[in-house]
C-alpha cells in the first residue's frame, strides 16, 4: 500500500488520541465533502481513492489536519480490505469508516452482461462489505466501539429503468447495513446508511468546482439537486456522539424526491377525472338508463 501523509493541525492533547476515519471514494463529490468535514471536526482521515491521486491530494489540502492518501480499488474487494487494515495500522487505529465509493451505470435487463453486472456488484456491494468487515474487526479488537456509514442511494428503495445492477447493489448494501447493525451493536459499533437523491457531483456529470443547485428540478419537492456538503452533514452526524443511539437506519437525503412516486399517477388520474367531468353527456331515457345499470353489474 502506497501512502502519503499530511499534518497541518495541532496534535491531540496529552492523554488523548485523535479518532481515525477512513472515507472511500474521497477524491470527489460526497466522499470529498465528508472527508473534509471529518478532518475539520478533528479526526485523522484516510482519503480513499481509486486512480486520481491528484484529486485525492486536493481533498487532503482542503481538509487540513492529519490525512493519509489511501489507494483503494473496490473492484478487488480483498485488496480493498487489506488497504483498510493497512491504513488503520498506519494511523494508529480506526473509529469511523464511511463507504462512499461507488459506480453508477444504466443497462436494460435484456441487454445486461454478467461481466458488467458483477463489476457493479463488486464495487457497490462486495467491496463495501469487505471494507466494513475489515473495519469492524479492527474496531472489535480495539474495544472502544466505532461508527460505520454506508452511502447507498434513493435507489436502495426506488427502482429506476436500466438500474438492475445498481439498484440490486444499493438495496443489498442497505440490507447489509441492518444485519451489521444487529450483529455489531454489542460491541458498541453503530452501522447506518445514508441514501442520497440527485446530488450535484461528478457521478452525475457535474465537475467539482461547479454548483448546479440553481438548476430547476420540478420533480424534486425542494426544486433543485442536492449539494455534496448537505449529504456529508448527514453522514458526519451519524459518526458523532449525538447519534450513539441510532443504528440500522437508512437516512434519506433527497430533497423529497422519494415522496413523489404517486404524484404523476395522481396528476394523470385527476386529469382523466376532469375530462370525464367536463365531457358533454347526452341525457338518456329513463328506460335505457335503468337497463344499462343492470347490465353493467
CATH architectural group: 3-Layer(aba) Sandwich
* Main beta sheet strand tally, sense and closure: 8 strands, mixed
* Structural class by secondary-structure content: alpha/beta
Strand residue percentage: 5-15%
Per the CATH scheme, the topology name is Rossmann fold
Give the helix level as a range of percent.
40-55%
GO molecular function, one term: oxidoreductase activity
EC number: 1.1.1.-
Keywords: Oxidoreductase
Protein name: SDR family oxidoreductase
Tag the structure with descriptive keywords.
SDR family oxidoreductase; Rossmann fold; oxidoreductase activity; alpha/beta; eight-stranded mixed beta sheet; globular; 8 helices; 297 residues; KR_dom; disordered C terminus; NAD(P)-bd_dom_sf
Amino acid at each position: 500500500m502506497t501512502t502519503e501523509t499530511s499534518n497541518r493541525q495541532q496534535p491531540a492533547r496529552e492523554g488523548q488520541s485523535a479518532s481515525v476515519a477512513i472515507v472511500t471514494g474521497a477524491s470527489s463529490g460526497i466522499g470529498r465533502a465528508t472527508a473534509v468535514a471529518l478532518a475539520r471536526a478533528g479526526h485523522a482521515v484516510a482519503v480513499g481513492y481509486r486512480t486520481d491521486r491528484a484529486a485525492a491530494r486536493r481533498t487532503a489540502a482542503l481538509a487540513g489536519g492529519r490525512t493519509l492518501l489511501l489507494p483503494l480499488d473496490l473492484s478487488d474487494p480483498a485488496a480493498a480490505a487489506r488497504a483498510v487494515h493497512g491504513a488503520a495500522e498506519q494511523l494508529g487505529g480506526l473509529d469511523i469508516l464511511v463507504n462512499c465509493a461507488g459506480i453508477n451505470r444504466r443497462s436494460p435487463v435484456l441487454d445486461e452482461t454478467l461481466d458488467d453486472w458483477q463489476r457493479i456488484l463488486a464495487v457497490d456491494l462486495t467491496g463495501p462489505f469487505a471494507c466494513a468487515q475489515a473495519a469492524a474487526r479492527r474496531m472489535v479488537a480495539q474495544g472502544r466501539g466505532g461508527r460505520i456509514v454506508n452511502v447507498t442511494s434513493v435507489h436502495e428503495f426506488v427502482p429506476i429503468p436500466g438500474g438492475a445492477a445498481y439498484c440490486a447493489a444499493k438495496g443489498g448494501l442497505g440490507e447489509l447495513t441492518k444485519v451489521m447493525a444487529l450483529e455489531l451493536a454489542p460491541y458498541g459499533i453503530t452501522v447506518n446508511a445514508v441514501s442520497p437523491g440527485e446530488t450535484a457531483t461528478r457521478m452525475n456529470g457535474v465537475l467539482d468546482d461547479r454548483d448546479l443547485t440553481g438548476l430547476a428540478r420540478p420533480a424534486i419537492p425542494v426544486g433543485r439537486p442536492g449539494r455534496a456538503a448537505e449529504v456529508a452533514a448527514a453522514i458526519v452526524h451519524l459518526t458523532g456522539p449525538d447519534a450513539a443511539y441510532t443504528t440500522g437506519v437508512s437516512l434519506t437525503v433527497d430533497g423529497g424526491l422519494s415522496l413523489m412516486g404517486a404524484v404523476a399517477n395522481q396528476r394523470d388520474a385527476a386529469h382523466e377525472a376532469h375530462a370525464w367531468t367536463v365531457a358533454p353527456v347526452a341525457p338518456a331515457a329513463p328506460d335505457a338508463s335503468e337497463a344499462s345499470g343492470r347490465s353493467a353489474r
